Amino acid sequence: MAGGGHDSESTPEGDGLRASDELLVRRVQVGDREAFAELARRYLRPVHAVAGSFLAEPADVEDAAQEAFLRALDAIATFEADRPFAPWLYQIARNVARNRLDRRRRWRTNAAVDDLATASPGPDEALERREVRALVDRVLAGMPDRRRTAFRLFDIEGYSSVETARLMGVSEGTVRSHVHHARRTLRRRLEPLLGRDGGR
Amino acid sequence: MTHQTPDRLPPEWLPDPVGPARGGDPENWDRRLRALLSAAEPRLAELARSRAREAGPRVAAAWWSLLVSRWRALVGAAALAAATLALVVQVLPAPSSRGAESAAAFSLTAMAGQGTAVAVWQGLGSEADPTLAQIVLQGASR
Hints:
The structure holds two protein chains of two kinds. By secondary structure, chain A is an all-alpha fold. Chain A has two domains: 16-119, Orthogonal Bundle (Rna Polymerase Sigma Factor, Chain: A); 122-200, Winged helix-like DNA-binding domain superfamily/Winged helix DNA-binding domain (Arc Repressor Mutant, subunit A, Orthogonal Bundle), CATH 1.10.10.10. In chain A, 74% of the residues lie in helices and 0% in strands. Chain A is elongated, with a radius of gyration of 19 Å. The two termini of chain A are 20 Å apart. Chain B starts with 25 loop residues before the first helix and ends with a helix. In chain B, helix 2 packs antiparallel against helix 3. In chain B, 12% of the residues are buried. Chain B has two domains: 24-92; 93-142, no CATH class. Chain B has helices at 26-91, 95-114, 117-124, 130-141. Chain B is mostly helical. The interface between A and B is large, with 59 and 40 residues.
């Protein structure tokens, strides 16, 4: 994968680890704290990354990641431990983050009227950076969830395509396809700005 | 990735990573982990309690199933004994056959006493002794 030369030694869920995920889940199902701590250590970062693909505020991301784990814990008694744990957790994280995003959008819609009255332009150099990032955020927000998350995990958070695929419960080819389309869309939308910035 | 895939965008154009696969501030991750474990504590305790509650009835159920299985064995043994007894009773000479024997004995006594099979047949009927009945019939046809 172009630009995707990550090693996979800290794979969040390798083949060899899947069995131990199952074992950990079975132990958590009977209230084992150590087993839960191990699962949390293993998946806290990727769950943050998934939440980060929906939410911009670090505090929101942190809250969403924690909520995702707690919701998983609420449902773990009925989870079939022989199923892959990571994609299940990913789905929960995605739903939690999306719900928070919806709530935040509603709140922003209400607050937007107040912001219009008080908004003031910043310094020029910061304005351009903010402009680009805001556009990137908008383009990413308009992408399908899975494409955005694959792009986030691979291009922003630095997970390998194998890690991303295992976490999302999809094939590596699907991850590559999502990343390909996400980059193409972003480049197309950012072209005017990239040209203005010396064609980067 | 295929050669047609566009290059990565410059990192400065992208949002900051929030949960980088590697690196990051270890203290920050430790703090997040501790916060998560603390928040998860009541749920883990509840899972442990649920497990204990489920384990109680399961043990009791195991005792009951053991008792029932033992009782089943006993009931089975009793049924087998009853069937054996019934078989033995059936194999033993039935009262009717004993009656037939006594009738046969009577017919011989009667024949010895009266000298005719007809008298015996008239007294007991042909079912008393098939041979005797045949003799009676042969006598009647002559």
